[in-house]
Design brief:
Belongs to the cytidine and deoxycytidylate deaminase family. With 162 residues, this protein is of the alpha+beta class. The protein has one domain: Cytidine Deaminase, domain 2. The protein is built from four helices and five strands; from the N terminus they run αββαβαββα. The radius of gyration is 15 Å and the shape is globular. About 9% of the residues have low confidence.
Length: 162
């Protein structure tokens, strides 16, 4: 399901992603990442990366953000959000950093299967359509946009398990 966003939504999305970098916990790499996801109900949900001295234990900003969105109860949706319009990711480097492969995989399925009840074991590849826009911001606020399909072409998903 393709979604379009307004200029005001894009401004809010980018501002919140850039501001979310300030909440990053990255004492080892000092590589701050902030993210913001826009739900179809109009809510903006943010997150930032969280590091651990044991690097594989850390969590990327994109996964923090989508996990928060999925598990956050809202006044509109009792079970958490299951449908999204766009994601923005902000870093301090130039050019903007692209989301890692694990985060890319996490986006796919949710936006086409938003009635899914059991989320355990699913990734974001499972939560977005191929045309889902991902806005990537550098340290100066410049951005580029790519679709999930451009970031994760020919990806493996639930449809392969049938």
């Amino acid at each position: 399901m393709a979604h379009t966003i307004t200029a005001q939504e894009l401004t809010t999305l980018s501002t919140k992603a850039i501001d979310a970098k300030a909440t990053a916990y990255c004492p080892y790499s000092k590589f701050r990442v902030g993210a913001c996801i826009l739900t179809t109900s109009g809510e903006f949900i943010t997150g930032a990366n969280i590091e651990n001295a044991s690097y594989p234990v850390g969590t990327c900003a994109e996964r923090v953000t989508i996990g928060t969105a999925i598990t956050t109860l809202s006044s509109i949706i009792i079970a958490g959000h299951r449908d999204f319009k766009a994601l923005a990711v902000a870093t301090d480097i130039k050019p903007a950093a692209s989301p890692c492969g694990m985060c890319r995989q996490l986006w796919g399925f949710f936006f086409s299967l938003f009635f899914l009840l059991d989320l355990f074991g699913y990734s974001i590849r499972e939560f977005t359509s191929p045309s889902f826009p991902v806005y990537m911001y550098d340290g100066e606020g410049n951005h580029k946009v790519m679709t999930r399909e451009e970031l994760l072409p020919d990806s493996f998903g639930p449809d392969h398990l049938k």
